[in-house]
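Researcher: We're teaching a course module on how sequence relates to structure. For the next exercise, students receive a sequence and then see the predicted structure as tokens, so they can try to spot secondary structure elements on their own. Here is the exercise chain.
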Amino acid sequence: MSEPVSSACAAHAMRAARTTPAFPDLEGKHPCFSTTAEGHAKAARLHLPVAPGCNIDCAFCRRDFNRVEQRPGVAARLLSPDDAVAATGRALRIVPNLAVVGIAGPGDPLASDHAIETFSRIHALWPALTLCVSTNGLMLPERVDELAAAGVTTLTVTVNAVDPEIQARVTPKIAWKRKRVNGVEAARRLIDNQLAGIARAEKLGFTIKINTVLIPTVNDHHIGEVAKTVAEAGARMINIIPLIPEGRLAHLGEPDFIARHKARAAAGKHLTVFTHCQRCRADAVGTPGLTDFTRELYGDDIRAEPTFSHG
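Model: And here is the predicted structure for the students to work with:
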């Protein structure tokens, strides 16, 4: 586990982190684990939208199939594992600096078998590619060994609270063991699984980043505790993502610069803070913020499923 950032001057530490690689082996090779601006701009990633459904119901989440929205949970189509493998082959010809293949939606990658099957097949064909998954963590303890066997080495877990009372406001229900679980009980199960999964992933050698959605009036006072707890479990980096007002939290405004700075300073006492997030789509292709090969790879048509399942 990395040494925590000094509490004496978290803002200075964050500025230093932008010029000093947190993970030298990934710097310039994985945009979401590169902490310098130069490293972030060097490598391209391919997001494969193979995850059809989700097992938790977050209040801010609104998944959709469209071409125009630039945010997580959105894709133009859902791919099968066969489609995803074929798309990876095409992407290697189209995108000259492709280094990372990730699965981050539009549902949760561990709620079905599609993502793990896709990773396994891609790793067998192109072992030099870095494989990355982003998950809510509910199924992580049960599936992290499968991810490791499939060649995945970088992991992002979305942890929005480590207090069940707060988490229940963010995620009021989950699907667990084929049953719907509500409220604080659901929140406690999700948090316990996230922390257990992170600890197991750390033992398996994953490089672990946390995504935390900064939600005004809900968890904005709680970011330091989240960072401290996930660092103790084995995470090494945190990305504070400002809320995009959607779903049942559409009435809340996006947090302003001061709120984002305070949250990052609180998190920076415990973890390296990632500051280059582009809040990517589930089918993003290219170098974040610089190039976009999505249409060239996937075409112009939209193939939508009528609903997503929350169990």
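Model: If you want an answer key for the exercise: The chain has ten helices and 13 strands. The first strand starts at residue 44 and ends at 47.
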